[in-house]
From TrEMBL:
InterPro entries: CCDC90-like (IPR024461). It is found in: Membrane; Mitochondrion. This is DUF1640-domain-containing protein. The lineage of its organism: Eukaryota, Fungi, Fungi incertae sedis, Mucoromycota, Mucoromycotina. Keywords: Coiled coil, Membrane, Mitochondrion, Transmembrane, Transmembrane helix. GO terms for cellular component: membrane; mitochondrion. The chain crosses the membrane at residues 201-222. Residues 93-200 form a coiled coil.
């Protein structure tokens, strides 16, 4: 990895082959990020950085001690800013656990509310079903009463019609009987009239025969 030093630092190009040379576990090391404080107020556990060794490497490459210190401070500022930018979107374990706990509480409340709503909905459905059953029973009772009244009215009308038909039948029967009696009387009168006519015809025939016999006897007596 290569860095180009500005003109104020003699514009020297420094070659840094690997970062492994910059890290060590010695007592002479310091925190590279000394001013960046995360949201939790605790210092981040960054790797140890051997600033003195890095300064000697820079001086060996042609940097002065002031330039080396400036580069180290610049790197420190860059790491500080990068760390702050990264940690702005990070949360601590305590915050994470607190958030998870809050989410669990929210989920528990939501679950309780859903259960309460379900129970309330079930109770409302049961109440609605009970009301519907009561209304249906009332409707059935009303229909039965209407049916009974309708049947009673129909029976009454049928009985009235039967009585009227029976009366009309009796009246017609009486009229027919009267007509039959009248016809029978007329027939009897006609028979009597026919008998009288027959008797008159018989009397006329007897008189005619008697007169004819008398004439014949007189004629015979006259010519004898």
């Amino acid at each position: 990895m290569s860095y180009v030093i500005p003109s104020g630092l003699n514009a020297q190009k420094v070659q840094i082959n690997t970062y492994a040379r910059l890290y060590a576990n010695t007592n002479s090391t310091r925190w590279l990020r000394t001013r960046a404080i995360p949201k939790t107020g605790q210092r981040l556990q960054m790797p140890f950085f051997d600033a003195e060794r890095f300064a000697r490497l820079l001086e060996k490459e042609g940097f002065s001690s002031v330039q080396a210190k400036t580069v180290i401070n610049a790197l420190d500022d860059v790491v500080d800013e990068s760390t702050i930018n990264v940690t702005n979107d990070l949360v601590s374990k305590a915050d994470q656990e607190q958030t998870i706990t809050r989410y669990k509480e929210d989920f528990s409340k939501l679950k309780s509310e859903i259960q309460i709503m379900e129970r309330r909905d079930v109770e409302e459905v049961k109440s609605a079903n009970e009301r519907l059953k009561v209304e249906i029973e009332k409707l059935k009772k009303t229909l039965r009463e209407e049916l009974v009244r309708s049947q009673a009215g129909v029976r009454l009308d049928l009985n009235l019609d039967k009585g009227r038909i029976r009366d009309e039948t009796i009246e017609q029967h009486n009229r027919l009987q009267q007509t039959d009696d009248k016809i029978e009387n007329e027939i009897q009168a006609l028979k009597r009239q026919m008998e009288g006519i027959k008797l008159q015809i018989l009397q006329y025939m007897i008189g005619t025969i008697t007169g004819a016999g008398t004439l014949i006897l007189g004629y015979i007596h006259f010519f004898s």
